[in-house]
Amino acid sequence: MLYDPETGCLITLDQAQSGVWDIGSCKKIDFPNQDKVQLKQVIEYFTKLKFKQIKQNYAEDSENEYDKISVLFQDCQILQKYEDWFCTEVFEINNYCWLIILNVYYKNINEEQILLFINNTKSTGHYQFLENDLENRLLKLLHPEKDLILDNYITNTIEKSRFTIENKAILSQIKGYKNLDVELYKGKILIKSKRPVCLEDANILVEINEKLNISRSD
After folding, report:
1. Residue 182 φ then ψ, to 5°
2. Of the N and C termini of the chain, which has fewer Cβ atoms inside 10 Å?
3. Kindly report the CA angle at 100 between 102 and 139, in degrees rounded to 5?
4. The sheet that has 52-54: what strands, in order across it?
5. CB count, 10 Å around CB of 214?
6. Is the Cβ–Cβ distance between 191 and 115 less than 8 Å?
7. How far, in Å, CA of 13 to CA of 2, rounded?
8. Which residue blocks in 88-198 are alpha helix, DSSP H?
9. For the whole prediction, is pTM greater than 0.85?
């Protein structure tokens, strides 16, 4: 028997090949939604680490903490490729660093991903680091970057900085990690998972944050 995820039906190979079967009479299996299971595990993980969970405030006359945080990075390139996005969960590590679960929508795909956002650092300029795949290799040919490099990624220099020591120190702590979106934007660091929310990516972002050990630029 084969499982059809769209209908939840168990069907025979002949039915699968023909594309015809009686949904009403076939046996169905209800599998748990794995995305929701992973989301629950990630929330429990962040809670266990004693990160402060910021609650969404739906009152019309009150200041929304989600909006106060998201406005800090809404102009960053890392989210421009999506048709729409919004925060669904926000965990504060300290008063300048957050782990955020974003709902992103693009190409009829609607999923939740995890973003590590660090504000008020010594990074300078504006750089985006794109995964070194076929889609982005043309960018590397058109705009070769010699000063600021992250292994396994292609550098998109949006605003060049003359002071790269701090940026290189930050990138040295991210070196070796794959399948991430990375952006340095005038004192902000954004590192986002590219997969639907999962415990593995949550652990990676927590690990990167601990490695960075950012010094504030007060």
Report:
1. -130, 135
2. C
3. 65
4. 52-54, 84-94, 97-106, 109-118, 188-193, 180-185, 126-131, 153-159
5. 20
6. yes
7. 7
8. 134-142, 165-174
9. no
DSSP state, 55? P
Tokens 């050990």, located at residue: 213
**16 to 60, 110, 115: CA distances (angstroms):** 51, 27, 39
Read off φ and ψ for residue 200, nearest 5 degrees: -60, -45
- The contacts of residue 128 (CB under 8 Å, 6+ apart) are 77, 78, 155, 156, 158, 181, 182, 183
Pairwise CA distance, residues 200 & 149, whole Å: 25
DSSP string, 155-184: EEEEE--S--HHHHHHHHHHTT--SEEEEE
Scan for tokens 């009686």, then name that residue: 22
Give the C-alpha separation, 55 to 66, whole Å: 8
Q: Return the DSSP state at 8.
A: T
Which of 144, 182, 148, 142 has the alpha carbon at shortest distance from 162?
148
Structural contact between residues 185 and 126, judged by C-beta atoms closer than 8 angstroms: yes
> What is the rounded CA–CA span in Å between residue 108 and residue 85?
13
pLDDT confidence band for 174 (50 / 70 / 90): very high
Among 172, 166, 174, CA closest to 190: 174
Two tokens, residue 215: 């010094």
